[in-house]
Amino acid sequence: MKKKIIAIILGCITAFGVLSGCGQGVETSSTSSENTNNELVFVNYRDIRDLNPHLYAGEMYAQSMLYDTLVSITDDGYEGCLAESWTISEDGRIYTFKIREGVTFSDGAVCDANAILANFNAIIENKERHTWLEMMNLLVGVSAPDENTFVIELSEPYYPMLTELGCIRPFAMISPNCMINGSTKDGVNGYIGTGPYVLTDFVTDEYAVFERNENYWGELPAIEKITVKVIPDNQTRIMALESGEIDLIFGKNMLDADAISQYVDSEKFSVSLSEPTSTRHIVLNTTNDILSDTTVRQALQYATNRQAISDGIFYGLEEPADTLYAKTVPYCDVELTPYEYNADTAAQMLDEAGWTMGSDGIRQKDGKKLELELLYNSDSVTEKTIAEYLQSEYLKLGISINIHGEEEQSYRDSMKAGNFDMVFNICWGMPYDPQSSLAAMRAPVYGDYAAQLGLADKAEIDAAITEILTTTDETERQELYSFVLTRLHEDAVYIPLTYECNKALYTSDLQGVHFGTDQYDVPFADMYFQ
Amino acid sequence: MRRYIIRRILLAIPLLLAISFVCFMFINLIPSNPAEVALRVQQMPVITDAAIAEMEEMLGLNKPFLVRYFDWVIGCLQGDFGISYVNPARTVAGEILRSLPATLELAGASFVIVLVLSIPIGFLCAVYKDGWFDRIMRGTVFVSTAMPPYWVGLLLMWGIGVKLGWLPTNGSGSWRHLILPAFTVALSYISTYIRLIRNNMLENMKQDYVLYANVRGLPQKAIWVKHVLKNSMHTCIVAMGMSIPQLISGTIVVENVFSWPGLGTLCISSIFNRDYPVIQTYVLLIGVLFVVFNLLFDILQTVSDPRLRKED
Fold first, then answer.
1. Its GO CC terms (chain B) (predicted)?
2. Does B146 share its domain with B276?
3. I need a labelling partner for A37 at 20 to 30 A (CA). Which of A2, A143, A232, A389 fits?
């Protein structure tokens, strides 16, 4: 009987072997092992979704592959895209664009001023959705006097106008044939643009295939075909890269510092990190009784060891941040004295502010304990880790921090309503920083407005931000930026922690991987295989 | 008997209504404004009051709670579960129908693996009780029950997908993609059914009919297969039937790990995206599946077991 059992077990093993080991190599639609040096397999954590460029639901990297805007934002400034050139009237209100000739959508439709006008009309029809862009509020009208000229008129000058026009959404151009009765508000019947790639196939939540647009008006990209696979799980993405099923992982939230650190010295895979894209920081609510005192807020700045957070939590991959915006952000290279970590200075400042050490190790003033609540997004492990670290560090100085996590929506609601003492936040990032994020500080849309309400110079700061947006004088604009950034820095409303950066992990055969001016863009057009 | 079946079906109706109400209520109890959530998941950089008001009207959120609930229930009965917040161009019913076949494929394959492995192993464990095979299998069952599917999945992916390169680590499209996720889902059920079959067989072996069969001189193999195994399978079949909705709902984590494009992946991505209409429908669907399968196998058991009919 024992022989029979052994025979059965061997049978099972053989059957499993037959099932699983019919052949070596993995059978996928396109893998790096099958690469003919012109196919790239990219991965994203979710589906491309609705790529209607006039709405906000789709993945921006995919929209950038399909569509073009009037102008492009590059490291060297603005460059013509669908508009070959442009002029701005002396009063800064009227923009006249000369539309590039000979450009067609991938369905053959001509992309002239009339097609661009049709796109703008569709965008304006849904204006309420786009009023977060100041230019939509200032827009007087658009017109196409002839097929090569497109005109935008504003009610007053607005300097970030070209930056906003360079945003892939909502100002990317879709073929008028895809519009439903001239509208894109309620959906489109195709994703046809003038961009370097065309969408040829997609299966929801599985993959999307983009092929090179052979009629692209610009320089043809080297990669002919890009397959985007959907892999929601972090670990699975890494394993798929290891097994050769994908070639590139790209994005801020696609890789954690731990995973990146494993591949820094790898020969098989390469790691790239971008310049700072946005700043991770803590917002202090100045309407709070304790935090209304500038000295206390400044003491918290000195009590925060940014280098330790950078080294201990981000393995040095995110640089410690000294200011709300990195110096690489336009207009933000302002001379500000950083609050260098110094626990003694912090303790001395708290003493001076009247917060003396109590017998229980917590500082007190007029019978009130120095207790604050730090709110974080419970979906973010990083924020929780930083919160726990700060809790223990601040306690050494007699500051009691209660950390409190809320799920993302609730966290955002609390932030917007100003229901926090201290809260984690991240700047908007490029290309929206600094102009759009500063503009948003003037209204109760994020936590900044509520947090700044206790500042004596809040009205002055808001007025300066409004002036920044409308001034046409470059020197004056820089002076105003310097004023606003200096005030916010000295008011110590924000505790900068680290500069977040974009990350890429890819097979070493892949070349030309770099980071664009838009943090959500993946510059596929510059990539090629060695 | 007929009266019993009709009574059970009628009792299921208020239960289904209660499930639908709970699904709807819990989603609506979330303090955030769903219109704002919808705009946020559509990645609106700044959410203005005008945009919220427009979205509220579009989603019918300006109506009273009960009106919205009955609208939703009537819609559900007509197959209209609303639209997805993440992608307003897609309906929830469309999303569920798109994902369901992949989940059924995975659950079906797992079910086959469970049957193919648990019945012979359970049988052998009972026949060779306390032998080396039984001891090894008992140890294996103990370990595999304790291992979370997420971890098992990653381990299999690493070993078989990355190190050996035998099978793809993720995705779908061929039978090769199916093996790792199906085996991962099946593993915990295999352990359960091996124990169930083994224990049932051991119980049956103590019954008088086995003694009489032995006295009559029937071959031992025939007694085990034709009588003991057959009688032990009664309870197992009901338990296995009940595990079908469990298998469908239980694929949620494994699907996500293996990027299997089924209901589980849809549910997880909807949870992360706060796509409330999809989450609501998923919970309702799973609740309905449990009620229906419970009812079905209760009736089947009553039909197949004369003792239960008598009691009724």
1. plasma membrane
2. yes
3. A232
| CB proximity A375 to B under 8 Å | no
> Do B164 and B303 belong to one domain?
yes
Tell me, what amino acid is at A86? W
CB spacing of B87 vs A57 below 8 angstroms: yes
In this structure, are B291 and B145 located in the same domain? yes
Kindly report the CA angle at B9 between B8 and B11, in degrees rounded to 5?
A: 65
Shared domain check, B194 and B53: no
Report residue B45's pLDDT band, with 50, 70 and 90 as the boundaries: low
Q: Which of A162, A478, A167, A471 is nearest to B43 (CA)?
A: A167
Amino acid A201 reads D
CATH topology (fold) of A1-51+196-268+508-530: D-Maltodextrin-Binding Protein; domain 2 (3.40.190)
Mutate to test the interface with B, among A3, A10, A28 (most CBs of B within 10 A): A28
Nearest CA to A243 among A513, A28, A511?
A28
Q: What is the pLDDT, as a whole number, of residue A36?
A: 54
Q: Report pLDDT digits (tens) over A44-59.
A: 988 898 899 998 888 9
Same domain, B238 and B284: yes
Q: What is the pTM of this model?
A: 0.81
**Contact at CB, B261 and A206, closer than 8 angstroms:** yes
Q: Which residues make up the CATH 3.40.190.10 domain(s) of chain A?
A: 1-51+196-268+508-530, 68-194
- In angstroms, the CA A355 to CA A394 distance is 14
Q: Which domain holds residue B26?
A: 2-86
| CATH 3.40.190.10 corresponds to the domain A68-194 | yes
Q: Which of A232, A242, A408 comes nearest B256 by C-beta?
A: A232
Q: Are residues B162 and B28 both part of a single domain?
A: no
Phi, psi of A90 (to 5 degrees): -60, -35
pLDDT digits (tens, 9 = 90+) for B198-233: 988 888 888 888 888 888 888 888 888 888 888 887
CA-nearest residue to B41 within chain A is A57
What φ, ψ does residue A279 adopt, rounded to 5°? -115, 130
B120 close to A (CB below 8 A):
yes
The verdict on a CB contact (< 8 Å) between B259 and A233 is: yes
How far apart are alpha carbons A135 and A153 in whole angstroms?
Answer: 10
Rg of chain A (C-alpha set): 27
Kindly report the CATH number assigned to the domain that includes residue B251.
Answer: 1.10.3720.10
Q: For strands A356-357 and A363-365, give the pairing.
A: antiparallel
Pairing of strands A77-80, A71-74: antiparallel
Contact A205 B99 (CB under 8 A): yes
B165 vs A25, A29, A50: nearest CB: A25
> How far is residue A427's CA from residue B26's CA, in Å, rounded to a whole number?
33
- Residue B39 — pLDDT band, cuts 50, 70, 90? confident
CB contact B220 to A (< 8 Å): no
Asked if A187 reaches chain B (Cβ–Cβ under 8 Å), the answer is yes
Q: DSSP secondary-structure letter at A325?
A: S
